[in-house]
Design brief:
Length: 375
């Protein structure tokens, strides 16, 4: 039945508007009864997977059934708002007096939506202009709007709608998420990510060659995927000899490589690699606090223009690693030295259990279970 509705809708769209929808995603939702899914006793996934008979039975006492849709043209551009929303067609299996209304996503449930403007971790409240929620288990990218009540399902969707340079936050309910590539998380400045102990898997390696301003991560587990590709690091700020301003922080976060796709123990390799030229003056303002790295250092940074006394402003504190050095695999000498400006109260060459607890030695205030944003 779904396929039939899809084909009929495309025909109606072509008749009613000259804009051609190359792909059209849709899903049943009844805006006049926002608690329909809850009343059905189904999860969002079960609701989405209803058979034709089950779907008809669920809606057979409704006079009108609404569908949310999004549309793209042949070049992948979003043309949802250009499609005529005033479409009504009969659907086989429903009562003769029922119609189906196709409505652009968000036109009815976003107009007066008030987003949260703060999030709380332990006893700390952080203020933002907007908090967008994502729930891999209970969210929906099609009918969700990013509110706490109607979260998105994927992190990629949240990143696509979050506003840059507007002090907005993305809050992940606990779960396992993916992003398309290394650049995704750094593609919009002044965005703040709250992981709620979630895991983010980066699918593909992409070098990052841009200014990065005020991006922060809290309570995250970050890792490359098993098809990550050849790369020296999870996030490679190689920068291609272009000067950039770099400002970000990782708080109570974990860096790991479960699929063993990153190089280990070789020159410069780490989870985050800084610039590759001592002839450039990159402006770093980077913080790692109460974080841990497994099988690789957290970050390697070249000392830019050592002869001029310039050093990158990178701070690692209250953090731990399995490696002998938390900031570089090989402490080189001479003008190519690796310099982390501040290293404070870190633990190196330690072991962890599966829950990331330090199992070798006692280190006060170190690791993800310590600090203001402790797990």
């Amino acid at each position: 039945m779904y396929k039939k509705i899809f084909l009929i809708l495309i025909v109606v769209l072509l008749i009613s508007t000259p804009i051609y929808a190359e792909t059209l995603n849709w899903q049943p939702v009844n805006y006049s009864s926002p608690d329909l899914i809850k009343e059905s006793g189904l999860t969002v996934e079960e609701f989405n997977d209803l058979t034709q008979a089950e779907w008809v039975d669920l809606f057979n006492d409704k006079e009108k059934v609404n569908f949310a849709f999004s549309a793209t043209d042949s070049e992948g551009n979003d043309i949802t708002n250009s499609i005529n929303p005033n479409l009504s067609i009969n659907v086989e299996g429903l009562n003769n007096n029922q119609t189906v209304q196709f409505t652009p996503i968000g036109t009815e449930n976003n107009s007066n939506l008030n987003y949260d403007t703060q999030t709380k971790i332990n006893n700390t409240i952080l203020e933002y202009s907007k908090v967008i929620y994502v729930d891999i288990n209970g969210g929906n990218d099609l009918i969700g709007n990013g509110s706490k009540e109607q979260p998105f399902k994927t992190l990629d969707k949240a990143i696509s709608v979050v506003s840059a340079n507007n002090n907005e936050a993305i809050y992940l309910e606990n779960g396992n998420y993916t992003v398309q590539n290394s650049l995704s998380l750094f593609s919009k400045n002044e965005v703040h990510y709250f992981g709620n102990k979630s895991t983010i898997t980066v699918q593909n390696a992409v070098g990052i060659d841009r200014d990065i301003s005020n991006i922060s991560f809290y309570q995250m587990v970050l890792q490359p995927g098993n098809s990550f590709g050849e790369s020296r690091a999870l996030f490679d700020l190689n920068l291609n000899y272009n000067e950039h301003n770099i400002s970000f922080k990782f708080i109570n976060s974990v860096f790991q490589d479960p699929f063993n796709v990153l190089p280990k123990g070789t020159r410069h390799n780490s989870y985050i690699i800084g610039d590759s030229s001592r002839n450039m003056e990159h402006n770093y303002n980077v913080l790692f606090a109460n974080s841990i790295s497994l099988d690789n250092p957290i970050m390697t940074v070249w000392a830019d223009k050592l002869e001029g006394g310039y050093q990158p402003n990178v701070t690692i504190k209250n953090s731990a690693t399995t490696e002998t050095s938390i900031d570089s695999p090989n402490n080189e000498i001479g003008n190519y030295g690796h310099d982390i400006l501040i290293k404070e109260n870190n633990a190196e060459s330690v072991t962890f259990n599966s829950n990331y607890n330090i199992t070798s030695g006692n280190f006060f205030g170190v690791g993800i279970y310590e600090g203001e944003f402790a797990w």
